[in-house]
Amino acid sequence: MFFLRQQRPQGMTPAEAVEQAGTGAVTVIDVREHGEVASSGKAKGAIHIPLMRLRDMADPRHPDFVEALKDAGPICVYCASGARSHSASQLLQQLGYDEVHNIGGLGHWVQAGGEIERG
């Protein structure tokens, strides 16, 4: 019988994202829908941009561009489980953002000690 050793995915862990978000070293984006954010809150300090609007709101040429992304360094994205944030990280890279990390879901953020904000 063969056992495969699981390797940690490359990139930033949720714990690293929580730590760096606390110092302002990363920009955190929540790509869940409005109703999800309304019911559970979002990571403290995160920018909420639903995945369906991300292409417009993260593109500097679009009128709906989010100015907070103008000089963004590393970006961490999350959703509910990690699937939509995977798509979001690929999209952001296509738009030219260099360092984008999928940190999974909001639960991963909380497990890593991240705070939640509501309202």
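Above is the first protein from milestone M3; the second protein from the same milestone is given next.
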Amino acid sequence: MTARPIRQILHAIEQSEGAGARVRRSIGTPSLRNLSPFLMLDHFTIGKGAGFPDHPHRGQETITYLLSGGVDHEDFAGNRGTIGPGDLQFMTAGRGIMHAEMPHENEDGAPNVGMQLWVDLPRALKMCEPRYRDLRAEEIPLVKTDEGRVEIKVISGQSHGVDSVRDLAYTPVWLLDVTIRPGGTVRQILPTGWNAFAYTLAGTTVFGGGEQTKVVDEFYNVVFEQEGDLVEAFVPEGEGAGKEARFLLVAGQPLDQKVVQYGPFVLNSQEEVYQALMDYQTGSNGFEKSRNWQSEIGKRMAA
């Protein structure tokens, strides 16, 4: 079993997005446009008066993982929901969805923080019917290894003999939330040939095996080569050693298809993007319910 070499390390620099939100984007930037099947990765912070009001999507899936606070969701089909700390929402846009995602106003004034990952849909499923699946924090299996120094939330996929509750996306994706205390090491096997990355949320982590190691601080995306069997990471202990580290380890099955993206529309050709724009503007071919629709939660922006 060999550790995957590191291909690229990207610093996720904070920028403005949506209406008053702040995001650290790594995938979906000039440095890493696409990492099939992944289209975009945002580490978002949204506070009072900010959010993502009514907007459309076509051709992709989104996975939203809330780290703190709360976020409400509402779409033109009448679907509504709320996710809290540790909860996830998996949304398949398919042929078309129009929705809003708005933060809670927390009593202590704390912002709402989370991750949103955009996953490409296979060509044959681009025009499927939209759907949602929620996964609550209490449903996610927890694995402890290395004498308790490593904890892994198995959100999707497998880790150390434990399977996730269910598959939640059409495109095969593994999503693991890993915490390592000083002195701990994790060696996580991943499916052969899948693209994989680790996004660091806290602390300092050493990635790689043997002499090919890199020390990585928080808010970086570590992209691995496809070659190799597993991802290895550890946190040193002893004098001068850091505190515990946390990162998201994500892997997905690459799709052999062209990606043509215009904002929230992700298709396989320029013509399909033009068609998506026309369908949205005319309220047709999947966007019929968008005509004159306005979300209730989106009205908070005008309040």
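Note on the second protein: The first strand starts at residue 6 and ends at 11.
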